[in-house]
Amino acid sequence: MPSIAVDQIEVTEAPPAVKVRKLFRSPQPRRPWGPIAMFLCPALFFYFTFIIYPVLVTFFNSFHILRQDLGLTYQFVGLQHFKEILTSDEVFWKAAGNSLTWAIVAPIIDMPLALALALVLHAKVPLARFFRTVWFTPLLMSYPVVGVIWLWVYNYDWGMANLVLRAIGLERYAEAWLANPATALPALILVTTWMFTGFHMVILLTALHTIPQEYLEAATVDGANRWQRTFRIVIPLLRPTLVNLIILDFIGKMKQFALVWVMTRGGPMRGTETVATYVIKRAFEWKTLDLGYPSAIAVIWFIIIFGLSFVLMRFLQRREALEF
Amino acid sequence: MLRMRLTKGMLMLPILVYTAFSAGPYLWTAIMSLRTTDEIYRSHYGLPIPAHWGKFYVAWTEFGYDVYFRNSAIVAVAAVILITIVGAMAGFGFARKRYAFPLRQPLFLLIFLSVMFPPQIMILSLFQILIQLKLFNTLPGLILVYVATEMPITIYLLRAFFAQIPQELEDAARIDGCTDWTMFWRVMFPIALPAVATTFILDFIYFWNEFLYAVVFITQQEIRTLPLAIQFLVSDQYQDIGMLATGLMIATLPILIMYLFLSEWFVKGMTAGAVKG
Hints:
CATH architecture of the largest domain in chain A: Orthogonal Bundle
Mean pLDDT of chain B: 90
Strand content of chain B: under 5%
Helix content of chain B: over 70%
Largest sheet of chain B: none
CATH class of the largest domain in chain A: Mainly Alpha
Oligomer: heterodimer
CATH superfamily of the largest domain in chain A: MetI-like
Number of domains of chain A: 2
Structural class of chain A: mainly alpha
Radius of gyration of chain B: 23 Å
Mean pLDDT of chain A: 86
Number of strands of chain B: 0
Number of domains of chain B: 1
Distance between the termini of chain B: 45 Å
CATH class of chain B: Mainly Alpha
């Protein structure tokens, strides 16, 4: 043990510091465990206490009934929660359907819109920086702020949405957007598009700037027009960025909670219930007062998110590999 | 030349339409924040003439926004300072060759993977843990959770930066007699300031705006943060649109004014988190 050697030197010989230094400079330096612990331990403390340990506790809880009114005492029930969720919990399936719809529809709307805006800004229009700054702003607001603003936008009598429809002569399409189960979810999806399109646009714009100009010049020499250059060269080169953004958008929407909580609380008729809001309701608003059952929902959803993200990644990247 | 002008003109149309869509709702709210609720009910799209700037004072003193603002400020500032120090140290420890040890790489991968964890997988047990630690319904409890949840992305981003700093610099500092501790604070941390600024902004905005953990872990009115307070005000007194609009301005203006001056940094910071789910 080298540490014993250091101790002995310090006890027996003076000045000790010199000898310790010599040990450090020996041909096989020891691992500096002191500094390693000093730099990593604070972060690892946070990480294991408030992330890893809670995740493990959630898995453990999902096999139990954990009544809040009985002092959180454990009653083991095995796989009972999972069986119930997957076979007979209609609210879960409704919520899962809504979350999945959101996660699939949002990227389909967001990405083409963000891409179109990025391409337009990239075409050196005047005031490009100003527009970019404005479009990015919604991302800096909290969900409750955005939620309240859009509650007003969707107001039937005086909201901006119906105001615009009436102004362009489409008043028969004016709608109580959040009160109708058929329009509530699309209305919320549009709000997240409003929030995130600027963000996606900025990242695509950065990627656009990295495309070597020579590629486009070469294509022009070969007689490609503007459209051909965009669709045959620019967009394929943006593909890795787009794939990243799609997966990111997908995961973000699978977790959606706050906007629903502020704007509709999952209504009307569970038309906007997401898995995240259902977990919180089931834990703190239901008479069961049980933390075990919602933990099981969280575990199932955790596995589904990771599984689908992995499938999506595989699917999108394989197609990419085939094309190049 | 004319043709080029024409295409530019045609490009401007979708840009202006999208800009109206993007900025319209917030500008409308900003205008309402300067009008009384009576004025708003008479006409929802009137201009703020005269502008009731006093509403900000009323919101601040009579509607509790001074308390909510203070709570948000305490949480965001404390959490961002803590995470910047702890995250930078960990990013450095994970980045440099000198501190390599077996399983360091798998450990880092685990941390990176948890960037994608949905909060639901932790929140119910965190609720339970905070109660056990007597930190439920306290701002320190919320701060600790915030620091932990942003830790993976912060470490990931700072590690990437520290890994690029050339080895010669580290060697030179060591020859000049730096210990690991002084080397980090006197040499490495100052060099990493641009990267630290990006994570600082990313984390601060996340802490300022966070809602899910706050809504579960804070039930007392006196320690509500701004996002939480707004959610309660919209369900309690939905009719007082004018005052709520003023509250929305109080909650967003600090960030938006800073954004006005440092927009490049903000855009950089927010998009640096693009690996985050």
